[in-house]
Specification:
The protein is α/β, with parallel strands linked by helices. It has 3 domains: about 190 residues, Rossmann fold; about 110 residues, N-(1-d-carboxylethyl)-l-norvaline Dehydrogenase, domain 2 (Orthogonal Bundle), CATH 1.10.1040; about 70 residues. It contains 13 helices and 11 strands. The strands form 3 sheets. Strands 3-2-1-4-5-6 form a 6-stranded parallel beta sheet. A 3-stranded parallel beta sheet has the order 9-10-11. Strand 4, helix 4 and strand 5 form a beta-alpha-beta unit. Helix 8 packs antiparallel against helix 9. The protein is globular and about 70 Å long. The chain starts with a strand and ends with a strand. The chain binds nicotinamide-adenine-dinucleotide (NAD). Nicotinamide-adenine-dinucleotide (NAD) binds next to helix 1 and helix 4.
């Protein structure tokens, strides 16, 4: 029989982790502060746009949820994953207060008899997990960092088929325990990258910063090629053919957006500031992403008559997701509409509804299919 695992924060990430673990035989105890949400999980009436969530939830037998944090103090639970949100602050760093609150509450409980290992899955700033470990270790807890490289719209599958599992371990023994959990549910054979907590915190942000840089680079070189009268796809295909570079994320298109890449990229600047280092790359990347949108706007202005309708579809940051956060396509559509163009947005109902609430009659709308 597999072990019992605690998960605090069973939102998008935590719920998918819980479902994947339960499915391979773990007993999962989930804790969340959102009572209505907990109830919808308990009654299996939760509706989710995340593929497989509803069907996996329908099958669960060993997944219990509660608002009582004390339930995770259980001699059978050695590992507790923490997946609460860590929103970006105005300066680009992450707000860790939800994790701090969880740990404040944990410290009010009777300390566990056996060492309990807290595993932070939320995205945090480098150095945070070390300081949390210092605080928690006096009370029989350890802290490790285990961020995931997943994207909304494919979380369950991304968790099952990761390129790598990144573990910033409190000790070799704890790292072994976390690795064993992933080995039991990953359906591929990922690389287990095990390192210190701070190294893992830097790696998580650096991976996303590199991706944004590659996307912004591809779009900038594409714009440059077009300005010189060439075909951007010929140039980018040839650059990507160099094995040292590779063609992934080196296509010409809209800039990067969504809930993770832009914020992780911006945080990198703060990470450098923490140690008095100049690191202009993330700011330059962000600026290039904006300049590319401006280039696209100019192209529309050169080629499109004001009385002709411009149609945009797939306004989310990624196919199969309903997230419009930092969607570059939507930003471009907005710029055009503000310049007086007649812009028609076509998408699924829940996407159009979100946009209509924000932009009202700035656009014309067409619902493509009902969700
Ligand atoms: N969703 C993703 O695709 C993704 C990808 C990579 C990293 N992450 C990181 O994972 C973390 C969580 O993201 P998410 O998208 O799952 O967020 P989310 O908002 O969907 O879920 C967070 C959950 O934590 C709960 N919560 C908040 N405070 C709590 C507390 N004190 N005790 C118990 N529960 C509490 C909330 O009610 C919510 O259900 C973030 O740091 C995010 O950056 C998410």
């Amino acid at each position: 029989m597999k072990a019992k695992i605690g998960i605090i924060g069973i939102g998008r990430l935590g719920l998918c982790l819980a479902l994947n673990l339960e499915r391979v035989g773990f007993t999962i105890l989930g804790v969340d502060v959102n009572t209505d949400y907990i109830q919808s999980i308990q009654s299996k009436t939760l509706t989710s746009n995340e593929p497989l969530v509803e069907s996996y939830l329908n099958d669960v037998e060993k997944f219990t949820v509660s608002t009582e944090l004390s339930s995770i103090i259980d001699p059978e639970i050695q590992l507790v994953f923490i997946c609460v949100s860590t929103p970006s602050k105005i300066d680009g760093s992450f707000d860790h207060s939800a994790i701090d609150n969880v740990c404040d509450e944990i410290l009010k409980l009777t300390p566990p008899k056996n060492k309990t290992h807290l595993v932070i899955n939320s995205t945090v700033m480098p150095g945070y997990c070390n300081s949390l470990n210092e605080r928690m270790s006096q009370h029989n807890y350890t802290v490790s960092y285990n961020p995931e490289f997943i994207a909304q719209g494919s979380i369950i599958k991304d968790q099952q088929f990761p390129n790598q599992v990144l573990i910033g371990e409190a000790s070799e023994d704890v790292g072994n325990k976390i690795e064993a959990v992933y080995r039991s549910f990953c359906k591929n054979d990922p690389l287990y990258s095990r390192m210190s907590r701070t190294e893992a915190e830097i790696t998580k942000l650096a991976v996303n910063c590199f991706l944004t840089t590659k996307i912004a680079f591809a779009n900038s070189i594409g714009d440059l090629t077009i300005k010189h009268g060439g075909n951007q796809n010929n140039v980018l295909a040839a650059i990507g053919a160099d094995e040292r570079i590779g063609s992934n994320f080196l296509r010409y298109g809209f800039g990067y957006g969504g809930p993770c890449l832009p914020r992780d990229n911006r945080a990198m600047k703060k990470v450098a500031e923490q140690v008095d280092l100049e690191l202009p790359i993330s700011e330059a990347t962000d600026q290039s992403n904006d300049l590319h949108r401006r280039f696209q706007l100019e192209k529309f202005e050169q080629n499109q008559a004001k009385d002709e309708q411009i149609v945009f579809s797939e306004l989310t940051y990624k196919t199969d997701s309903d997230i419009i956060e930092e969607s570059q396509r939507l930003k471009l559509a907005t710029d055009l509409a503000h310049k007086g163009y007649n812009v028609l947005l076509k998408d699924r109902k829940n996407v159009i509804e979100q946009i209509r609430i924000i932009y009202e009659d700035l656009f014309n709308y067409e619902v493509l299919r009902d969700d």
